[in-house]
Amino acid sequence: MGEELGASEVEMLSAFVTGFETACRVGYGLGEAVTARGWHGTGVFGRLGAAAAAAALLKLDTEATLHALGAAATQTSGLTASFGTMAKPFHAGKAAMDGVLAGQLAAGGFHATVDLLEPAGGLERAVLQDGSVHIKPADFSGWEILNNSFKPYAACHLTHPAVDAGRQIGKSGFDPTGVRAVRAHVGELAKQITGGKSGAPESALEGKFDLKFCVALALHGHNLSAADFREPLRHDAGVFETARKVTVEAKPDLTFTSARLEVELDNGRIVTADIPVAKGHPGNPMTWNDMRDKFKGLVESRLGKRSNSLFEQLREFGNGKALAAIRAVSRAA
Amino acid sequence: MGEELGASEVEMLSAFVTGFETACRVGYGLGEAVTARGWHGTGVFGRLGAAAAAAALLKLDTEATLHALGAAATQTSGLTASFGTMAKPFHAGKAAMDGVLAGQLAAGGFHATVDLLEPAGGLERAVLQDGSVHIKPADFSGWEILNNSFKPYAACHLTHPAVDAGRQIGKSGFDPTGVRAVRAHVGELAKQITGGKSGAPESALEGKFDLKFCVALALHGHNLSAADFREPLRHDAGVFETARKVTVEAKPDLTFTSARLEVELDNGRIVTADIPVAKGHPGNPMTWNDMRDKFKGLVESRLGKRSNSLFEQLREFGNGKALAAIRAVSRAA
């Protein structure tokens, strides 16, 4: 959209930050609440962020921006029951598409309800029906984008703390064939969304949402990059065997970012790992090198040696030269 | 979509009926329940109907059709809090658009969750969160399209029974300037969605959802056609004066289709009207002549004398010649 409108890199970055901050302000503290009620936070709050970003790129005035946000809110969608299928990543793309549409509609004079996002407004009533949690009045202090989490693993974010624990235990020297039982203690939402799966996913997409399978991969020394979740899903029988030994329990002191793992070995020894803050969250951030590794894991099979230079250009986005360089790499691909 | 695919008129009609029956089967008896929880039934069930129609036109097999329905279900959207703005009719168009997209995605191999529509499935859990009402196992007997309701008035369907009552009282000879008070007794949902408005709408769109205003129009002899809801909204001061005298009360014996009106005159006389089944519902259907009148009210300002012939062609849709005739009229417009 930025390219179509001839926006500068700085304008695009500014629009992105506008969208990010808007989504965070409306959704602050509500991610787990909407997820527990069957709605994907990306589809609820991401759509609003996309509309805010579109409004910024379109340079809408205050009133039109309110209509864009209203048009986006009334398109709220994305069921958590779709997790583990192609529909989950589709939620993110569709949220972006609907947000752009909302901005374009508002630019054309579309009128929506402008108080849908208010505490106790139409969005909250429909998505958080029991009225026990509420959209908070917006707090405009600080920058939420500085508190963003990144995902080091190509699996559901809720699996990350337990995967960190599994990787800590599964590092070099550990023999996963000597495992008798694995007890994963996780937060309530991680249990609800990812804990009840079989441990024997039939597709990579299912595997990303199967905590038992993800923990087993980690114990077997995998880094859970995109390469571990290619279709068709193929892994050593040992991974699936370990996954069968995993039990998942929710603990009230654990959250979205924390987990504990107890691995009982055949010789009776117990190995434990305690992850208070999973890698990628504020307090335990990914470094630029971690980012580069993830990026390369995603694009290197396609871009080869150009992966590094593309990463460097993306990192400098906003200097006015990055977009042309990115286009050149994309064309060559 | 049918034209793009080169479908015959019979195939298009068949796809339409497929979509209609699908939406009704899933949503049977749940229209008021989803509305009361903040979701527009058109956005919830209409989207599934559109996907089913698209699947029929695309001749998808059973499995792909399930994925199309899943892709549509996870796009469920449309907030009732948008009623009274452009976003409400937008819900219908967006449901159609998303349903077509769902069909096209499934045709391309997209995989969604295929049990979202089941009783207690992901859609029901997200939209009917208190678990007090459920999607019913599909009943495939009969044709729901034969039980369809049509709207004779260009206002919210929930206003129709009270408008019928107002028109019964307001027919020729009635003097609305002699009205002291108007008591509208309606169903709970009509009260909730349309009863709490001011009676003094600032736009035609607001007016369509304002029961007091709609009843006043009826008492003043208007037929509530599209012409009564043109922007900017202009009506005699008397209509707004009467609207101010209307009070709305929900009665447990009244439903979506029924209403009672008590008009108290300045001379103390009380005139009443009791509508058990509003015009347009099964049991009190619109005739073809009623349909023609509504159609002409919508298109005559644009199509003039061609309105009649277009109506006749639409009525014969399926004979294989209607589409060409409709195209000819559209081109000439």
Characterise this structure:
The structure is a homodimer of 333-residue chains. With 333 residues, chain A is an alpha+beta fold. Chain A has three domains: 2-145, 2-methylcitrate dehydratase PrpD (Orthogonal Bundle); 157-275, 2-methylcitrate dehydratase PrpD (60s Ribosomal Protein L30, Chain: A, 2-Layer Sandwich); 288-332, no CATH class. Chain A is built from 15 helices and four strands. In chain A, strands 2-1-3-4 form a four-stranded mixed beta sheet. In chain A, helix 5 runs antiparallel to helix 6, helix 13 (288-303) crosses helix 14 (306-315) and helix 14 runs antiparallel to helix 15. Chain A is globular. The first copy, chain A, starts with a helix and ends with a helix.
Structure keywords:
homodimer; alpha+beta; 2-methylcitrate dehydratase PrpD; 60s Ribosomal Protein L30, Chain: A; 3 domains; 48% helix
Structural class of chain A: alpha+beta
Quick one: which chains have the greatest interface? A-B, 36 and 36 residues
**Bulk shape of chain A:** globular
String of helices and strands of chain A = HHHHHHHHEHHHHEEEHHH
How many helices of chain A in DSSP terms?
Answer: 15
Question: Using DSSP, what is the number of strands of chain A?
Answer: 4
What oligomeric state best describes the polypeptide chains here?
homodimer
In the sheet with the most strands of chain A, the strands line up as: 2-1-3-4
Helix content of chain A: 40-55%
CATH level 1 class label of the largest domain in chain A: Mainly Alpha
Whole-number mean pLDDT of chain A? 95
Uncertain runs of chain A are none
Question: What is the CATH H-level superfamily of the largest domain in chain A?
Answer: 2-methylcitrate dehydratase PrpD
Topology-level CATH name of the largest domain in chain A: 2-methylcitrate dehydratase PrpD
Rounded to an integer in angstroms, the radius of gyration calculated over CA atoms of chain A is: 21 Å
Distance between the termini of chain A: 21 Å
What count of domains describes the coordinates of chain A? 3
- CATH architecture field of the largest domain in chain A: Orthogonal Bundle
Give the strand content of chain A.
5-15%
